[in-house]
Design goal:
CATH superfamily of the largest domain: NAD(P)-binding Rossmann-like Domain
Strand order of the largest sheet: 3-2-1-4-5-6-7-8
Order of helices and strands: EHEHHEEHEHEHEHEHHHHEHEHEE
Low-confidence stretches: none
Number of strands: 12
Structural class: alpha/beta
CATH topology of the largest domain: Rossmann fold
Shape: globular
Radius of gyration: 23 Å
């Protein structure tokens, strides 16, 4: 069967789908984006990437102009595509259990448009076993298709570069599915690694949990040193200086975002809540904002203090605020402090102020997200600066 498009990226307007669609199109493959967000589709059609992604906008304009990229809000475009790449992940609920109904719902919605002979690729993080359940759902609906789980592993903001440079993990439901997925990703990735379907699902979760645990280790060490009045940053420098075995030892900071905590909790659910390292990491990382505030309360009368939060996105040089712990800081400080001022160079919200206004009117400033634009800021002499990232290279304790 001849298809109009090589690939259709379902949910293709987001942080995972759009860079992939742009990269496929830039490789010369006729690519379609399917998304229910009409506003986002309109923005993309105008040549604008609706979030910060290095190098994406230039390539987007190019592939729109040469007509290698098409956007749609109509599910029928799925039927015209050889590969259907589904960008629907597995969030967790308020009880920290995975919500697999989202991907099932989307799959049921698009089943009428799936044609025999297509290859279905699941791209976002899923709860282990989800890929096989989706394959069974398709089989029960008499869809003779190939299916693979091929997780994204990019760092937000660097997707255009990393899609090509990082090895692509591929897990297929069978050999034919593996070969089909390799055929597609070999067009854009330098290397592919084939493992089983379930191994691929766990590889993605293990990767994010490993990073989350590493950050928790650094944050726990920071708190241990800080409680004793010792400078963690000096200790870290001493550990890492010309010592190769500590090369990847991370610094302290607010470890958050839409993936690390969520995926760590998915492993816990998968293993009957017997993931003690993961649960410990969650308590440390999620409790870090409370630790900062508790230490400040012991030294300052917060009820009489204006506290400024510098940076609100979940990581530096990024505009994504999902699950950012800066907002947890803000929420607690609104109870504890006289006033809370917030700023971010990439996020505009009602009530946010510019950095100069924040510095002028704050008694205490917490560097929550160390955007590079903040490097040259000048603070008042008597201001308390809480710089857990050691962004300004001055060390110190809270």
């Amino acid at each position: 069967m001849k298809f109009k498009y090589k690939a259709c990226v379902v949910g293709g307007c987001g942080h995972v789908g759009l860079p992939l669609a742009i990269t496929l199109a830039d490789a010369g493959l006729n690519t379609a984006i399917l998304d229910i967000n009409e506003k986002a589709v309109k923005t993309i059609n105008s040549g604008i990437v609706p979030f910060k992604e290095i190098g994406a906008e230039e390539k987007l304009i190019k592939v729109l102009k040469n007509k290698k990229l098409t956007t749609s809000t109509n599910n029928s475009i799925i039927s015209e595509s050889e590969y259907v790449v589904i960008i629907i992940g597995t969030p967790i609920d308020r009880h920290l259990n995975p919500k697999i109904e989202d991907i099932h719902k989307v799959t049921r919605q698009i089943i009428p448009f799936i044609k025999n002979g297509q290859t279905i690729i699941l791209r976002s993080t899923v709860y282990p076993g989800t890929s096989r359940m989706i394959a069974e759902l398709l089989r029960k609906n008499n869809k003779k298709v190939k299916l693979a789980f091929c997780p994204e592993r990019i760092a937000q903001g660097y997707a255009i570069e990393e899609i090509k440079s990082l090895p692509q993990i591929i897990g297929g439901i069978d050999k034919a599915s593996e070969k089909s997925a390799i055929k597609l990703f070999s067009k854009i990735a330098d290397e592919t690694i084939v493992i089983s379907l379930e191994e691929a699902e766990l590889a993605k979760l293990f990767t994010n949990a490993w990073r989350y645990i590493q950050f928790a280790t650094a944050n726990q060490f920071f708190m241990i040193a800080d409680q004793k009045g010792l400078d963690f940053h000096k200790i870290l420098h001493a550990i890492k200086h010309n010592y190769p075995r500590a090369k990847n030892f991370p610094g302290a900071g607010l470890a958050a975002g839409p993936c690390l905590f969520k995926d760590t909790m998915q492993i816990a659910a998968f293993n009957n809540n017997q993931f003690f390292l993961g649960h410990a990491a969650m308590l440390i990382n999620e409790g870090f904002p409370d630790y900062i505030i508790t230490k400040l309360k012991a030294k300052y009368d917060l009820k009489k203090s204006r506290v400024g939060i510098l940076g609100m996105s979940f990581k530096a040089d990024n505009d994504d605020k999902r699950d950012s712990l800066a907002y947890k800081l803000k929420k607690v400080l609104e109870i504890e402090a006289r006033e809370v001022l917030c700023t971010d160079v990439y996020i505009k919200e009602p009530g946010f102020v510019n950095p100069k206004t924040l510095i002028k009117n704050s008694d205490i400033i917490i560097v929550a997200t160390p955007h590079k634009e903040y490097k040259k800021l000048r603070f008042k002499t008597k201001q308390k600066i809480v710089d857990i990232w050691n962004f300004y290279k001055k060390g110190g304790t809270i």
